[in-house]
Amino acid sequence: MSGIRAYGPIAIVALLLALLPAVSDSNTVINALVNAMIIALAAQGWNLLAGYGGQFSFGHAAFFGAGAYGNAILQNRYGVNPYAALLAGTCLGAAVGAAIGYLSFRSGLRGSYFALITLAFAEVFRIVANAAPVTGGAAGTLIKLQMSAANFQFSSRAIYFWIILTLVTAAMVMMRGIERGRFGAYLIAVRENENAAAALGVDTLMVKLKAITLSAGLTALAGAFYVQYFLFVDSSIAFGSWISVEALLAPIVGGLGTVFGPLLGALALHFLGELAKAFAGRIPGIDLALFGVLLVLVVAFARHGIQGLLTRLMQRIGARRAA
Prior knowledge:
mainly alpha; two-stranded antiparallel ribbon; 15 helices; 2 strands
């Protein structure tokens, strides 16, 4: 019964989202949904490390870009099957995360110092990718169009949406399992008081290394899927600050340290940006300005994000019915 309560809401939300292409078959709508799901997957990775583990990163673009370029280079230069390349890109991103985490945590970096070192790594990777021949330099890397299921290329965008939705759902199920398990308890202990957790016998270094490796793997998977969907990547896309910003904004707006927070935040931010562009025209930066306003409002009036607001609303409705 507890399992149904824990995982049932995830299944219901996934089913409702899966029906959206049947409601609207517009490529514009489905493309917006796919983009929102890519952000949700990357944000779930950031949420694992920062929301549960308390290790705030400003450079998750390093992992997103590793997955993106890993997938693209393996397909273009070595003829690796797209499905295998997607998996390899994910593993590459996880390995990058483990390396950055080991260098950072082993040196005792915490808080703002850790955030800045991740930002520095992402920027270094962007500069290298912009100049390296293997990445295509400033021109980027274009994956050859070969429309077939064997090449992970589909004529229907709805298929891409269902695939990325499945990945996001799997990530939420994994997060729920972590939340209910011992590793989740260790993460929260490290987040609340790392020194106290260490004094109680928790191997804080290993806990943080596991967290950043899993976090990087999820974000790299988002990057690898992004390349497979758009069939193109360059340094500003792969290692640009945009993905680091959106990956951290989505959990904060949706609900930091919660399973549904990244998904709610990604949907809210993405469609808020699209509405802003539709009503305000192509004013440069209008979506970012609205993101900033929304972030300030959430921090000031809803510190538990959209999920916290929904939870309080449901509690009030339940209390009124009981009365």
